[in-house]
Amino acid sequence: MVKPGHHLAAIIPSKGSLFEVSERPTPTPGPDELLIHVKAVALNPIDYYRLYIGAFVEVYPATIGSDYAGIIVAKGSNVSSEDLQVGTRVLGISASYAAKGAPDYGAFQERVLVPATAVTPLPDAVSFNEASVLPLAVLTAWSGWYQLGLPRDAVFTPEDKRGLIIWGGASSVGSVVVQAAKLLGFVTYVTASEKHHAYLKELGATRLFDYKGADVVEQIVKAIKEDGVAVQYAYHAIGDLQGTLDVLQKVKGEGIATVAHAPVLAPDAPKADGIEVKFVIPPMEPSQTAEFIQFVFTVWLKEKLAKGEIVASPRLQIVEGGLSSLQKGLDEWKNGVSGTKLVVEF
Fold first, then answer.
1. Global pTM?
2. Which residue range is the domain that position 119 belongs to?
């Protein structure tokens, strides 16, 4: 039995340590915070690196974890939104990065403090497990639109003939970008393993290509020219950047093309004349960051989930065992998963 006023958490006692599941005191939310009873978390690559090399962790003992879904059990005095009442089912992104591992703020525990501005109410039709795969991927997708310079209210019509290359559409971020790009009105040219093509078509991809094909660049270029579409943007979700650059060089015309690049850019990453590659991050000025995150979760995602215009993607895979299985799940991610996101339910 857990002591009153305590809950179980996957604690990292010190840098280089692995998870230890133990009790810790349950915190009280500050004025602008919510206390969430966590029901499911999704695993992300950054979680692996935070655990094993201490990336973005300065406070020990630490908790980590970003993607969660759960139930509001307490709220701060400034939280007045009617959408965020005790008992409301929600998804959101934790403040674990900003908190540098401070143990009240990592999602890998039964109770977590979160900023009320980074929370979205869940429609009844969306399960906790499904909801948990979305938060970081949605924020990363929108950070890409920001880096590409797209207005928040941008919507293209078929007559506009605007195209977008999405490299790595079956990844967590890529699958959300496919959905969001459809809502923006882009004609999309999406790469993924052939086994994922039917699923991505369901999510709204226009044209699909097997990235392993020796002539994949030529295939994409041919399709873009056949469609008569203007392509000056690409969202590179995963994989070798060279293919994205090669396509853009052949189709972009005389203007500058831009690539939103989700993975961290290596110092020796390929470059190309007339193409700007931007790492996918939100606005960095603190007040702008806060406003951006609030828009993504309390306006855009809230509306799209309620209308069913965004669905949980990619497909999820449950890692059995609750908090004790987080280690196993991160190791499983490192060993390779394709077209799925690993989820742990509590």
1. 0.96
2. 6-133+314-345
